[in-house]
Each structure stands twice: as structure tokens, then as C-alpha cells.
Design a protein that fits this description.
29% helix, five-stranded antiparallel beta sheet, 13 strands, alpha+beta, globular
Length: 266
């Protein structure tokens, strides 16, 4: 009788063990599913990573900086949910990440100089917005870059034909339509942006306005930064990217800019 009881007890224990394993597996899968859903929600609506590919925002942002971009910051689109969450309008001086208007719409990062309705003028590298000289402590000029009369004095007062050799042809066809009394007028729902590294920035001077709907968000912090001396090209082969990745991995500790990690972006 004792042997029968022992066998039965062992069977019950085995069943309970299997049941616990089953519950444990299900709990693991459930947690994994919740994690995936939260990750998708966060990257879709709240935060997204972005890598700085060019020198246009130096010294504020360096090639190789990896940013966390807050997609949950800018309001002003009129959506009903903006009243429920801490959105704010886009301001002068904000750094934004947005879809470039052309060429399959890669993401760019620049600083907002002009808001809808603003009047923009650049005279000898000095930027005026609504007749007021901007205080831009973040701006640098590179003396090694040849003088660019178009970038240093803006907007142009020339023909569309001549402009086509300097700017995007789409912008050359419309820029003069937005010029009045020697100033560029920013249209509704559009923004004028420039890079902090003015002489090495391909920005609104050369291709036009940023549409409000193209703005993804604003960078809040650098979560990782690795030294890179050249602009990162998007048009490289998979093999080249793999070699670059392997080289970076091998020299990760020495190339990481540790002092920039968790650095706030302003």
C-alpha cells in the first residue's frame, strides 16, 4: 500500500512539475510578446535612434554620434490628442530630425532658423529673422572652405537659370516666388533649417523648406558616440558596411567617445 501511495505521489509531483514548466513557458512567451509590443509602440510613437552621418551639425553633433530622438515632443498639427499629452510647438533654435524632401527621403538633422511667416535674410554670414540679428553661439565657419556668395548672402536676387547651377533644380524653380524686399518669406506649415557648421551644411538655402509633416522629432541625448573622421555614405555595399562594422567592433573601446555618452543635445 505504501508503494502504491509513493508511486501516486511521484506521479502527482511529476504532473505538477510539468504544469509549472508549461506555465513558465507561457509566462515567458507572454512577457516576450508584451516586450515586443512595447518596443514597437516606443519606436513608433515615442523614441527612435538616429546616427549622425555628416559634419553639417558640428560641433554640436559629431559624425558617429548616436542619438535618441523624441517623437513625442512637437505638437501643432491640430490632432485631438495633443491636448492630452505634453506636446509643444516647434521653436527657433530647436534641433529637429526630418525626412529630406527628395531622393527617397532619408532622415536629416538640422536647426530650425525660420518658422512659418518669418522673414529670413543672411548678410555676410549674419542671419536676420524678422529684422533681428540672431544670436547663434553654436555656429562655426570653416575658413578652409572656399567663399560661397550664395550661402553667405541669402536669399539670391538672380535668375532661375543661374540658380540651377547652385541649388536643387526644384528649389531653383520656386525660391524667387518666396522672396520679397530681399527677404525669404517662410510659407505656412513650412520651416527653414540650417546646420551649425554653416560652410559644410547642405540645408534649406540649397534645397528649400521642411514640411511640418516631414518632422519626426527632436534629439534629446547621445546614447553612444564613436570616432569617425569622414562623412558616412549611404551608398555603400553590404560588404563595405560589414568591414566597417568589424573594424569598429575591434577598436570599440578606444574609439568610443566616452565623454559624449548621455550628453544632452541642445
Amino acid at each position: 500500500m505504501a508503494d502504491v501511495t509513493s508511486v501516486r505521489g511521484a506521479e502527482v509531483a511529476a504532473e505538477r512539475s510539468e504544469e509549472r514548466e508549461h506555465v513558465s513557458v507561457w509566462e515567458y512567451l507572454e512577457s516576450l510578446l508584451v516586450t515586443i509590443i512595447l518596443a514597437l509602440f516606443l519606436t513608433t510613437f515615442v523614441v527612435q535612434s538616429f546616427k549622425i552621418p555628416s559634419q553639417s551639425m558640428e560641433p554640436t553633433l559629431l559624425v558617429g554620434d548616436h542619438l535618441l530622438v523624441n517623437k513625442f515632443i512637437f505638437g501643432g498639427t491640430g490632432a485631438w490628442y495633443e491636448k492630452l499629452f505634453p506636446y509643444r510647438s516647434i521653436r527657433h533654435g530647436d534641433i529637429i530630425v526630418f525626412r529630406f524632401p527628395f531622393d527617397d527621403h532619408p532622415y536629416y538633422v538640422k536647426r530650425v532658423i525660420g518658422l512659418p511667416g518669418d522673414r529670413i535674410k543672411i548678410t555676410d554670414q549674419q542671419v536676420y529673422v524678422n529684422d533681428r540679428l540672431l544670436n547663434e553661439p553654436y555656429v562655426v565657419h570653416d575658413p578652409s572652405v572656399p567663399y560661397d556668395p550664395f550661402g553667405d548672402t541669402f536669399p539670391p536676387v538672380t535668375s532661375r537659370y543661374i540658380l540651377r547651377s547652385t541649388v536643387r533644380p526644384e528649389w531653383a524653380d520656386q525660391i524667387l516666388d518666396h522672396v520679397s524686399n530681399g527677404e525669404l518669406i517662410v510659407p505656412p506649415e513650412k520651416y527653414f533649417v540650417m546646420g551649425d557648421n554653416r560652410d559644410r551644411s547642405f540645408d534649406s538655402r540649397f534645397w528649400g523648406f521642411v514640411d511640418r509633416s516631414a518632422i519626426m522629432g527632436g534629439p534629446v541625448a547621445i546614447y553612444w558616440s564613436i570616432e569617425s573622421t569622414e562623412d558616412v555614405s549611404e551608398d555603400v555595399s553590404i560588404g563595405t558596411r560589414m568591414r566597417e562594422f568589424a573594424d569598429t567592433l575591434m577598436h570599440l573601446p578606444s574609439r568610443t567617445r566616452w565623454h559624449r555618452i548621455f550628453h544632452q543635445v541642445r
